[in-house]
Design brief:
Strands 1, 2, 3 and 4 form a four-stranded antiparallel beta sheet that branches. A two-stranded antiparallel sheet has the order 5-6. It is an alpha+beta fold.
């Protein structure tokens, strides 16, 4: 499944001295299970923080595959292509976005759009844009602050029990 470029990565490194007595297969299973738990928590938090208008954005947030390279395990929480607007919801648009300029029409004199609730047409020469809602940033910070330390502590206990 292809992903949008908006992606968050959480890394867990294995250390030889911690896993010394454990065999490779058991170590890999424990670390991958811990990383899956962390990624699932982060994806659930991102879905919880994401704004809900149609529910499409929340449905397109998912925990990705785990990749192992040496002693490094990497996974990500991503947004599927079904919500290509996610980066603008996350970072903002217009004066609130990365370019810090109002949104203006490119080919006409007026912007025009149908109102969300009333269905009435609206016109303007420029609009400020939308503030970033930072649902991914908030979920990553929450996951790192709350869940990662707890889950890594549990992983350490699981390794001690397994040896």
């Amino acid at each position: 499944m292809a992903t949008d470029e908006l992606s968050v990565r959480i890394n867990v490194s294995g250390q030889k001295n911690v896993y010394g007595v454990l065999d490779y297969a058991k170590k890999r299973v424990l670390v991958e299970h811990a990383l899956e738990d962390i990624l699932d928590f982060a994806a659930e938090r991102a879905q919880g923080h994401a704004p809900e208008w149609t529910g499409n954005l929340k449905r397109n947030i998912f925990a990705g595959e785990i990749v192992k390279r040496g002693f490094m395990y990497t996974g990500n929480v991503s947004i599927a292509p079904g919500a290509p607007y996610a980066k603008w919801v996350e970072s903002g648009t217009g004066i609130y976005g990365p370019f810090k300029i109002p949104i203006v029409p490119k080919t006409k004199k007026w912007l025009a759009w149908r109102g969300r609730y009333t269905g009435l047409m609206h016109h303007a020469r420029a609009v400020k844009g939308q503030r970033g809602q930072h649902f991914m940033r908030d979920s990553v910070l929450e996951t790192r602050r709350i869940y990662v330390p707890m889950r890594l502590k549990l992983l350490g206990e699981q390794i001690k029990q397994a040896t």
